[in-house]
Amino acid sequence: MLFIPLIFHLCRLKKNNIFQTQFAEDPCIGEVSIYFGKELNDFLYSTMEKTRKALYFVCQFLEEQGYTQTLRKLTSESGFDYGAESHSSSISSGALMALIDSTLDDERPSNQRQHMLPVGDDQFVNEEYCCLSGFSSGANIITSILRSDGVLASACSGKQLYVFELGNDIKRTVSEAIPRSFDHHSAAVLALDFHPVDKDLFITGGMDRVVCVWSLKCSERPLASFQNHSKYVVRVKWSSSGKYFATASYDRSVCVYRQQENDDNGGFELIKTLQHPGCVEAISFRKHEDILIVAVRNDNRLWIYDLTKENITECTFLNMNAFGDDYVSFTAMDLSLSPDGQYLLVSTDQHRIILFHISSGDQVGNYYGVLNDEYSQPRSCWHPSGLYFYSTSDDKSICVFEISSGKIVKKLKGHSGRVRDLSFCKDLGLLVSSGYDSTVRFWNCNPDIPLNSGN
Predict the structure, then answer these.
(1) Are 81 and 127 contained in the same domain?
(2) Which of 35, 50, 118, 398 could form a disulfide with 412 if both were Cys (CB 3.0 to 4.6 A apart)?
(3) Separation of alpha carbons 400 and 387, rounded Å
(4) Average pLDDT over every residue of 27-32
């Protein structure tokens, strides 16, 4: 296929006397060697390099999408050694999709483009501060949240739920902290969240289909326990006001609970079960509003509910496809609102993270470089400045993205297993990660570390 454009180019160069063809008999083999001028040599090299890169992008895409037979056929026909190239290449995952998205981005209105976002200030988490381990009896740490007063809650795959009082000097207390155990769940605890106003309250949900409301003052039993789901409870989340909380399950439903009036014990009651066409993967509440956002597997829409309305089942939709079509090419697996509440970060199962302007629904940016697939459980969280975000990757690292450029400015490495959860404690300036190596790791910003180290 390369010979046709090559011949035309040779003819053009010859017509314009741009190169001379020199013939010389090779004394060793008695054959004729052909030497070309510099422009043609540069053209040949450029063409071959572009072809090699194009083959690499396509092979990478086929591998990431699981098209193994097609990949094998392509490498056989082209003679391209993708295995050797992939081991030595520095090209990030999702390269072809990033290239396509960059082309599409040029067609969008300027107010939807990533480069309009504020530029980073080089102040982001760049080193491991300390590590908490040895408390879970080898069980995976599924989720962890650190409060501003140093209270850490960690949930494990072995149904354990632990609360540590680490205080403000975590590096000193982490090695000697003794946790309290909150025992009620009969299977792995998959999600937890602290109340935004009442520091004593937090909620949990697990594989046993149970949702619990806890008080830190009482570890023996929960204040309330609900079993309104028929499958795993994968997400629990308080609204910003603390008047509501929502739970999401693989039974395709979201249960919404409201605080009971005139209840001195802070009791909650189920007010509505919202049904969806697929398993619910993620939920989030808008900042300072009782508006719930729901992500559903194999759905190109986000479902948005206003809980203050009389009929909360009425919802609006945010179409995640940039051109408004209904094609489903990914699933939204995680939702994270920016610190100012203007943007929504959507982590997908396709090596891709998408940034939306929450009010307009416009797709503002796309980010590539993490390793995810349909079996991944990606998590992302924002830096308090709103200039960076952190995202898990299946290569056991945490990627630090600059919002404006879309570049990975740092990879945080320390976990020996997949990172399962991320959260940021603004007041203590710490990123908290937990994962399948049975550890909780704390990361901070060290200004003495060069910005390009460890990438």
Answers:
(1) no
(2) 398
(3) 10
(4) 40
